[in-house]
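User: Hi! I'm a student and our assignment asks us to look at how structure tokens line up with a sequence. Could you show me two examples?

Assistant: Happy to help. In each example below, the sequence comes first and the structure tokens follow. Example one:
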Amino acid sequence: MAAAIAPLFPISIASLSLGRASHHDLAEKIHAASAAGFQGVELFYEDIELHAKQYNDSSFEESILKSAKDFKDLCDECNLKVLVLQPFMNYDGLLDPLEHAQQIVKIKLWFKIAKAAGTDLILVPSNFFSEGTTGDDDQIVEDLLEIVELGEKESPQVRFAYEAISWGAHKNTWQQSWKIVKKANHPNLGLCLDTFHIVARTWADVTRESGVRPNASKLLAADLKECAAEVPVDKVFLVQLSDAERLLKPLDAAHEWYNPDFPPNMIWSRNTRVFPYETDRNAYLPIEKIVRSWVYDWGYRGWMSYEVYHRDLFDPSPSIPQDFAERGMKSWEIMVQRLDLDNIGSEMRQS
């Protein structure tokens, strides 16, 4: 399948979005992404963690680095760029010094993994544990600067994209994550913007019958205007795209997926993310509006990446990687056409 041509917007897909590692191995997923026409992949840690088990005669570190090298070799074979290693989870705001120290040991291994895999970018989502953490801005800035400064000493230097996930305990909007990144003021620390997380906090409400917040359009328009005005476009290191299913009933205590231990947005995300324009799968979020604003009002130019979580990714059927890769590319072809991305020039254009 030929990729939709958009020279200023190469397209990537997350390795997890091609099948869960427990059911689908690296080779079939990487080959599926390449065959569908993707130009890059995001490396999810679980993919190399499970693949590393085959190296049972090696130490944990040796096996995980061999696995990361296998991932890179597959991507090189298929002419795919490894866009990012993720997710370095639940790091920011830890109150226990021992837990923090353990994470610092872990990030030093992740530097080696990133290098073996051929990427210089690590994604750090906001902490979603409220217990044992703080939302204090100064503390979170200090935590992020600690790993950023360690990464700066690597060769090549390691960059970090900080992402406010929509169920984050303390930071769950891009405005909050931007405040942290701006205050840290380091060239190797930027933002990750994900359409799902933005929409989940400004437009959608999965606990409502309609699935939409009151005044949703106005809220989203104001949010997009603020982003274009406040965030320098070069401080965004990663852009992720996904839509999600409109549920048939609210995700409340009566819903079959409800779990009091998990926030509704987390449950919704883990089960129902789909590709933009998949209305046949109940996709309903205004993803095109967001991307249009980013491209035309804000002036974003660069990689875009599909990050889709879905219950079907656990399906052991061997067709899953190809199915998801082809669905993703079909979605991208529609977006390229609808937003005229293949013809956009390097100069700023206003919609």
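Example two works the same way, sequence first and then tokens:
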Amino acid sequence: MKIIWTFTLLMIPGVVSSMSVTGYSGGGVTIKCKYDKGYSDYIKYFCKGQWSECTDRIKTDTKNKWVQSGRFSLYDDTRSEVFTVTIRDLRRLDSGTNYCGTERVGIDLYTEVNLKVLTGHQIRTVRGYSGGNVIINYKYGMKHTNHLKSVCKTADQCFTVINTNRTAEWKHDRRFSVYNDRSAGLLLLFIRDLNENDSGEYKIIVKVSEDYSFFSEFNLDIKKEDCCVKSISLSASAGGSVNINCKYPQSHIRDVKFLCWRSGADLCAKETSVKESRRWRDEGKIRLYDDREQQLLTGSISHVTEEDSEYWCGVQSDQGHKIFITRVLINVTDVLETTSPPSSSSSSSSSSSSSSSSSVESPQLRMCIK
């Protein structure tokens, strides 16, 4: 029962407290509301509006179990004497004054929650392919650089990034890695060797304080795709060149295509991408060409060395997520040295053969990965 005795309430220690909470549209927030000892059995609620006209968003007497009402969920942890409120799919209209309340005879106990919902770019769905890899990026903003970050698939399967003074940090757990680029305000989730069991809902959480955190939820959809080869093996002579071709699914026709060079644990140490159809992109030793009608990325790598042993072909979504489709393994062999000078006739024949060979080389070569 909400009664407006403002002066009286302010005179009672511990009855009135407040917190400021910031969330982002399309995402969610989790708010922890403490209550006094002895009130574990009482009804808990979360309401919006000024105290005299506060409208309940969720209200329950259920203990130690999540209760849901639309976008709102509440869990009353009687042992910790804290109830937690989660709001999903935040909207600008959620901004304003809210209250965590404990209902009792007379004057309710409450905490004022000033919620501010800012415009945010949320992840919705990310597609990946069985046998490939995916890198999902989440922009959290520079003001949250020092806050704890976690990535969760379920409540019991979370990967937490511990902040340090370093520019970037990795945390690995088998096929999963989390990378926190503090200088860019960017969190990367990298999943290798995808399979259909990786499909499902994921949550990226930023813990701002002990009282609240905000989060973004997204769906990871892993598909088996018959159109594309998972991996190819090629051979090239050191110092020579190699041609590659990679098929990609029709659903990615308009996406950016890329070729990534793998260096040790870094799956994309150097990237070359092409954004337009049927136009060559030259960048250093790599040339790329995207034929959208054929759903085919083709290209060549010149001046091959032993370091060019592995590349990946993939596509990049409009939100910047990288989907690795085909693995390209290159076996680099030594160049054979001639032990004696060729005769003039053989030299002429060799020159003619070389000239003929170069003249038939196709300008549109085809490419693939694993």
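Here is something you could point out in your write-up. The radius of gyration is 29 Å.
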